Q: What sequence folds into this?
């Protein structure tokens, strides 16, 4: 019999991790499914046999003392776990044993529509949510009448079934989840009539959500533990409330600032005036200075949206559009002609003042404000 340490290419004082690493490397090279050379079958069989012994402390000690580590297998038939082969190819197997019935619940997402006033000043909303909640009748256990889960009679509580099959390399042991208990290791003989053994039911309930001032559409409020309760009474996921901002009737939001447009007559623009406008804080007086031009703006400081998680508010920017009358009476025309002559203007050819291409009226100013 070849020296098992030489078969794996390790020293006699090698650690378990070193032996396992060597086996993985050789298994990837000599496994018959990877290497089609017929001669590798015996090589892989020897590698597997060596790992079977050297990875087991008791068998390794027996081998080091000169004993026959294969004596218990009836003349050399080797038993090794399928998980070790998978471990060699994929770098580590998962933990075995029954899995818990209690699993974490999923997160939930709902939307809430808010108007501009609620967004500016913050609000508190009562929301109706439909999610999975813990079953009150069984307390989340899934069992009826205070009964308890019982050990599975098929897998004896292991949650998995092992099966031994013969192959060209010896007896191969494979494991699969137990069909009788679905891998839990226990069965519920008397499921709860309310939740059918799941430990949770769907329910509509109301929660209170505080919305901070200054939020924007698309922002989400995180409520920990308010999502779906997990199966088997597992912990609940989280609930996310997404803000949906409803458009205002006449105010346009740009971050923390608000934009509002008004139209005044050319006389009011020339002489100046005071107009009253609606804001989120009620009606406010806006002074229009004489000579204001169409598309000029007046800023009301501190009348915008509250800054999110900060002090202060943005501004309300009032855009002014000067309206020119389209129909004039003969008397009105005479008055305007006299006005023009008094200013030295020639009625046959008025002087043209060229403006930059950026000066394109009220809506251009509003557009530029949003494109800053």
A:
């Amino acid at each position: 019999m070849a020296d098992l340490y030489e078969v794996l290419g390790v020293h006699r004082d090698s650690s378990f991790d070193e032996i396992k690493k060597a086996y993985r490397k050789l298994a990837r090279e000599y496994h018959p499914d990877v290497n089609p050379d017929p001669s590798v079958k015996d090589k892989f069989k020897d590698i597997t046999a060596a790992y079977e012994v050297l990875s087991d402390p008791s068998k390794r000690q027996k081998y080091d003392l000169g004993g026959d580590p294969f004596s218990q297998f009836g003349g050399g038939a080797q038993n090794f776990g399928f998980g070790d082969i998978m471990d060699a190819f994929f770098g580590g197997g998962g933990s075995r044993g029954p899995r818990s019935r209690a699993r974490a619940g999923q997160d939930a997402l709902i939307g809430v529509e808010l108007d501009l006033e609620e967004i500016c000043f913050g609000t508190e909303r009562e929301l109706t949510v439909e999610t999975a909640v813990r079953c009150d009748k069984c307390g989340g256990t899934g069992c009826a009448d205070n009964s308890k889960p019982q050990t599975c009679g098929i897998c004896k509580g292991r949650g998995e079934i092992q099966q031994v099959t013969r192959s060209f390399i010896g007896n191969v042991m494979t494991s699969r989840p137990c069909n009788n208990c679905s891998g839990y290791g226990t069965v519920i003989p008397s499921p709860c009539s309310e939740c059918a053994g799941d430990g949770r039911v769907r329910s509509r309930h109301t929660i209170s959500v505080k919305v901070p001032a200054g939020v924007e559409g698309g922002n989400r409020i995180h409520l920990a533990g308010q999502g779906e309760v997990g199966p088997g009474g597992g912990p609940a996921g989280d609930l996310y409330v997404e803000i949906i901002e409803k458009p205002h009737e006449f105010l346009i939001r740009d971050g923390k600032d608000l934009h509002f447009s008004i139209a005044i007559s050319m006389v009011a623009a020339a002489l100046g005036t005071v107009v009253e406008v609606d804001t989120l804080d009620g009606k406010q007086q806006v002074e229009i200075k004489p000579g204001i031009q169409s598309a000029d703006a007046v800023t009301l400081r501190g009348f915008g949206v509250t800054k999110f998680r900060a002090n202060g508010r943005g501004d309300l920017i009032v855009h002014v559009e000067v309206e020119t009358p389209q129909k004039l009476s003969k008397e009105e025309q005479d008055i305007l002609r006299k006005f023009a002559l008094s200013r030295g203007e020639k009625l046959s050819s008025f002087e043209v003042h060229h403006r930059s291409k950026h000066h394109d009226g009220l809506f251009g100013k509003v557009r530029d404000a949003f494109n800053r």
